[in-house]
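Take our chain:
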Amino acid sequence: MQVFNLGRANIYHVSVVTTLSCVFVVMLVAMGMLHSLYFSPLPYPDSERIVKLEYPMFDENGNESSEAFNYPSLMHLYEHKPAAMEQLAMVHYAEQLLTSDAGAPQVESAYVSPQWFSIFDMPLAMGRVITEPVDESSPVAVLSFQAWQNHFNSDPNILNKTLRLDEREFTIVGVAAERFYEPNLKKLTHNTAVWLPWQYNLTSEEAKPYWWNRYALNLMVGKLATGIEHEQVSLSLSNE
């Protein structure tokens, strides 16, 4: 891929996503090399191939000061998926008011690209997941099973009804199954209430072009192509 580094090394880290109800991300000591801790398999197909990608920044002393993506580099990597990656998915985490509820409770939202549902193999209680390509999706929503119970009274006719987050409305198209195990990429106690299309994420249009803004809640996960080692991906991404 092209280098947009503004004088800094263009280096990506690839970290293994692990379980025990959390994500253990071990920062790399040698640039482009992977170190990972294995605890127990994730409850997803081909879990050993699921990784979290990072975009580290280093200060003048060579110490890592950030692992977060800036918006242009995140989009560039997603749009130019390396052959070593079978799938890439973006997620933007937020906390918003569910203003369609009379009490307007604050809920956890996640704006995702469609590959997110495939990588984590989300089972459904009803409806469908978000399948439209990035930038082509209508404002739709997939509820967690808990949100469907707690905020919508387990309404069996919830599909095609409308919810409102802050000032934007979304049409409900699916409800995750109760057994779905969410990867805790944001924090240990994170429970997403609603998944939404990436294109509606809360990054401001004014901020999206800037390379110097790093967003800790804009993340990328992926699935390695069959037969590819983590070290190969780290090195290939860092050299592009």
In short: The chain has a mean pLDDT of 79.
